[in-house]
Design a protein that fits this description.
Blueprint: H1 3-12, H2 17-32, H3 35-45, H4 50-53, E1 55-57, E2 60-62, E3 66-68, E4 89-95, E5 108-111, E6 116-119, H5 128-134, E7 144-149, H6 160-175, E8 185-189, H7 204-218, E9 223-227, H8 233-245, E10 250-253, H9 267-275, E11 281-282, H10 285-302, E12 307-311, H11 317-326, E13 330-333, H12 335-340, H13 344-358, H14 374-377
Parallel strand pairs: 3-4, 3-13, 4-7, 7-8, 8-9, 9-10, 10-12, 12-13
Antiparallel strand pairs: 1-2, 5-6, 6-11
The structure holds flavin mononucleotide.
Flavin mononucleotide binds near residues 123, 284, 311 and 333.
Length: about 375
């Protein structure tokens, strides 16, 4: 029996989502501090098959393709426990240079029938100094830890010029900090829609300048860029070219969705959000189609020059497998875990092995982009 879905979730889903999240974070921090508790969690949740699921990308060993997406562990407090439930990597943050208390409540709402969350956190953050002071790491079964950086959410940091300055301050601070080498990768978030100003740095010149300055600061450190979901392909293509010019190692596709007209929403649920004039953007299943569409387009045109990390609406191994076949080398998730429970990561990894075996792939890297090989096209429906 799925204990989480049958017993725990019905209780949790009656409570305020942000309260539940904060409680879970506190429990996770506690569990991560004790080796014997970590071992118990590992026993309950963990699944490993490095032969089929392991990959070395950007010089990093990923024991499987599943990562935690930015926004769940926004002050990077869960580094010591996420590896034990099965994540191969985790993006902590998004962290900003200054402290921000978060947008006006409600900052989170559930749309269970649409398998989505309304998110209005707006880069709630302790600020980079406190995050780095507090963060600690473990050598026992750790997920690879990355740090996502975005511009401080403030009415004073609204225009792209101010946002660029603010982001660069964070990268400089990070590189001067002794903990910088504990992070396997850095992630630039140019795509959060919940912040003052546009929050989306998609002007080509701005991005070009920003990436050039970041490279000067971080040198050859592994760099990912988190992309938005709703973007016209012509515009996206030019931005991807700029990323490739600056040796961005991977593009993360994609962030939250703004559109309330998406056919994937259950009508009554979305109407309630509109009637209450709740602010925010959407995660989960409604993002999936946008994400998969972009993954395919980026892979077909640039797959030999930049890696893709697929995010959006992952609730099962089949969802992951589709993203991999479309061209993603790795994936990330949040909403699926909130709806299905922490055992989802181990289950996805276990089921993925079966899917790979069925299609005759020795290792997951062989399946990347295989959607575009004619032989198995017919099985997939994007
Ligand atoms: C509660 C919550 C907070 C989020 N905060 C951030 C964030 O700070 N930075 C970011 O890049 N993405 C953030 N996201 C977006 C996710 O990283 C992810 O791109 C999106 O939710 C789609 O994945 P999912 O369907 O698996 O949740 C957030 C998502 C959720 C659900």
């Amino acid at each position: 029996m799925n204990l989480y879905k049958k017993i725990i979730k019905p209780i949790l889903f009656k409570q305020d989502p942000e309260y539940v999240h904060n409680r879970f974070t506190r429990i996770g921090v506690f569990l991560g501090n004790y080796l014997f508790l970590k071992r118990i969690i590992k026993l309950l949740f963990y699944f490993e098959n490095k032969k089929r699921l392991g990959q070395n990308l950007f010089g990093i060993d990923f024991k499987n393709p599943i990562g935690l997406s930015a926004g769940f562990d926004y002050n990077i407090q869960l580094t010591k426990v996420l590896g034990d439930i099965g994540f191969a990597f985790m993006s902590g943050g998004t962290v900003t240079y200054n402290f921000y208390e978060g947008n006006k409540k409600p900052r989170l709402a559930r749309l269970p029938k649409s398998k989505s969350l309304l998110v209005n956190k707006g880069f709630k953050s302790f600020g980079i100094k406190k995050v780095l002071d507090n963060v600690s790491f473990t050598s026992y079964n750790s997920a690879k830890v990355g740090i996502s950086i975005g511009a401080t959410n403030s009415p004073l940091i609204c225009d792209p010029e101010a946002q660029v300055k603010d982001i660069l301050k964070s990268f400089k601070y990070l590189m001067q900090n002794e903990k910088k080498d504990n992070f396997s990768y850095f992630e630039l978030n140019i795509s959060c829609p919940n912040v003052a100003g546009s929050g989306v740095l998609t002007d080509q010149d701005v991005l070009d300048n920003l990436l050039s300055e970041i490279r000067k600061i971080i040198g050859k450190k592994v760099l990912f860029v988190k992309f938005q979901a709703e973007i016209e392909w012509g515009e996206a293509r030019e931005l991807v070219k700029i990323m490739i010019n600056h040796n961005v190692d991977a593009i993360i596709v994609a962030n939250l969705l703004k559109k309330k007209t998406n056919y994937n929403f259950e009508k009554e649920e979305i109407q309630k959000i509109i009637d209450n004039d709740w602010k925010g953007n959407f995660s989960g299943k409604p993002v999936e189609k946008f994400s998969n569409d972009l993954i395919g387009k980026i892979y077909k045109e640039f797959g030999d020059r930049i890696k893709i990390i697929g995010v959006g609406g992952i609730f099962s191994a089949e969802d992951v497998y589709l993203k991999i076949k479309l061209g993603a080398s790795l994936v990330q998730l949040i909403t699926g875990m909130i709806f299905e429970g922490p055992q989802l990561i181990g289950k996805i990894n276990k089921d993925l092995v079966k899917l790979l075996e069925k299609d005759g792939f020795e290792n997951i890297s062989e399946a990347v982009g295989s959607f575009w090989d004619n032989k198995i096209n017919s099985e997939i429906n994007i």
